[in-house]
Amino acid sequence: MTAGHEQAGAKPRQRRRRWRVAAAATRVFLSPSPVGHWDGAEGQDRFRSAYRTAFRDLPKPAASLDVRTDYGLVRVYRFAGKTDTTVPLVLLPGRASASPVWADNLPSLLAIGDVYTVDLLGEPGMSIQDRPITGDDDQAAWLHQVLEALPEESFHLVGLSIGGWTAANLALRKAARIETLTLIDPVYVFGDMPLRTIVRSLPASVAWLPKSWRDSFNSYTAGGAPVEGLPVAHMIEAGMKHYSLKLPQPERISEDRLATLGMPVLAIIAGRSVMHDAQTAAEAAERALPVGTVRTYEDASHAISGEHPERIAKDIAAFIAPFANG
């Protein structure tokens, strides 16, 4: 694990959005490469420029870390919290969104304690995949290795969208370092993805189609909110256009599997999500989680993290309070 990378500048943040872009949950690529990769130097440069611009909306990180795993190099940022805690939060973003997606959430989450953000391996971001990820065990293995490399003994793991599935998948396979689990409108966890969403995502995954098609899908997932001109939306669109994912399709987690989770779980469901039926998902969470707290935000879209950052932080703070210091 190495530190000392150039840090993207952080300027005083003004709330410029009350929503969060959620990128396509299904991607189709024909590249023969066995690992995720850019379509060329120009596309990678365009994404990195957009990433740096969007990163300026985050508080300045205390450290930038590259963690070596068996599957590649994983970029992790540490943000110093406003209160002392021995059990920090670890945030996993949605598809194609990387650490800058948490810009609206970090100020209120840092009131709880230290926070790590992770750029998911095999996704557009600053992590670099160099070995194929062939199944759910591999997805758990690289993330477990990241947590093992961090100095703390345990973590409050928080996942958004596909990051929620990634967090739950780890908790089912390698739970030793997970104190609590928070799943924010996770996909493939409490319900199946509707066919209409899968169909709408397909054109957004075709790189040569116009930018407007990707913006249209991202707006669809965000409840129809406009996405043009926003730094994080520009970053997501650049990743969708220029990066080829080579990740296995996540397996839907059954209720029987969820029932084996031993740690406390907070499930936050978006009432207007297009990634599953909200009522069905909430009922599944209520039935399946042995130690579960379920919250449905009735007016939220799948862009819930940007629409309700303070409410999410308040719910997480109350949920982890009994375990905040280990």
UniProtKB/TrEMBL annotation:
Gene Ontology CC, one term: membrane
Record keywords: Hydrolase
Alphabetical list of Pfam families matching this protein: Abhydrolase_6
InterPro entries referenced in this protein's UniProt entry, alphabetically: AB_hydrolase_1, AB_hydrolase_fold, AB_hydrolase_sf
Domain AB hydrolase-1: 89-314
An annotated Gene Ontology molecular function: hydrolase activity
The keyword Hydrolase appears for this protein: yes
Protein name: Alpha/beta hydrolase
